[in-house]
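Example record

Each entry pairs one chain with its bound ligand, MTE.
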Amino acid sequence: MSGLKDSKDVLRQGAVRTIERRAFLKQSLSLGALTLLTGCDVTDQDSVQTALNAVSRWNDRVQAALFTHRLAPTYPESAAVKDFRYNAYYGEDAVPKIDGASFKLGLSGLIDNRRPWTLPELYALPQTSQVTRHVCVEGWSMIGKWTGVPFRTFLERIGADLSAKYVGFECADGYYSSIDMASALHPQTLLTFKISNEILAPKYGYPLKLRIPTKLGFKNPKWITAMYVTNRFPGGFWEDRGYNWFGGI
Ligand SMILES: Nc1nc2c(c(=O)[nH]1)N[C@H]1C(S)=C(S)[C@@H](COP(=O)(O)O)O[C@H]1N2
Ligand SMILES: [Mo]
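Structure tokens for the complex follow.
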């Protein structure tokens, strides 16, 4: 890295910190202040929600500036927990059981080759492993080892429009989520097939889980059945219920 780039980075970080401070101030505004700033009637739930959503979208942009190029910490393989904790919006007894033999990953949106992919085809892609910390917003975290294809490799292989804004995911349990393209192309974002060196057990998302260690657990969809590339903001299951969409760690 050249000295010039270093000093630019320092300047940019300073600017980002200022923005972040403002974002923090803006996020901790009272309803009264929100009324003054946005001119919306706090007794009108819709306009309050619209204003708060606008603050959250703004927060997404600040997080994108702060986190997109950062690498998540990695750990020695010995740190990976074998009996990983299960989580979903329902109990373990209700996890989807997907038939791998007939499974096909559906593709749509801004992708050149939208033919569906079978598991043997996906398994034939170049794979890599990572030992990283999964952080759940509900207050627990755990280090695990996941194996799969770098998501960027897959996006390139299918001819995805890498200049599009979002990649969205649909899951067998009705869950859905989406990520910004920069995070989709991040070197640690993997479309995974394995946890702890073994094919994902049903509860961990068989056959496909997106592992994205730069984002919170709810941005790591399991039981992915379809994905799409789009410029239209797709939201997500928890994101549409109030969790911040960017979900950076
Ligand atoms: N399809 C689907 N994916 C999901 C969820 C879900 O309910 N459905 N929950 C998310 C949340 S909140 C977490 S913390 C992780 C948990 O993954 P794990 O069971 O492998 O620990 O899955 C994420 N992906
Ligand atoms: Mo979570």
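The chain has two domains: 2-67, 77-241.
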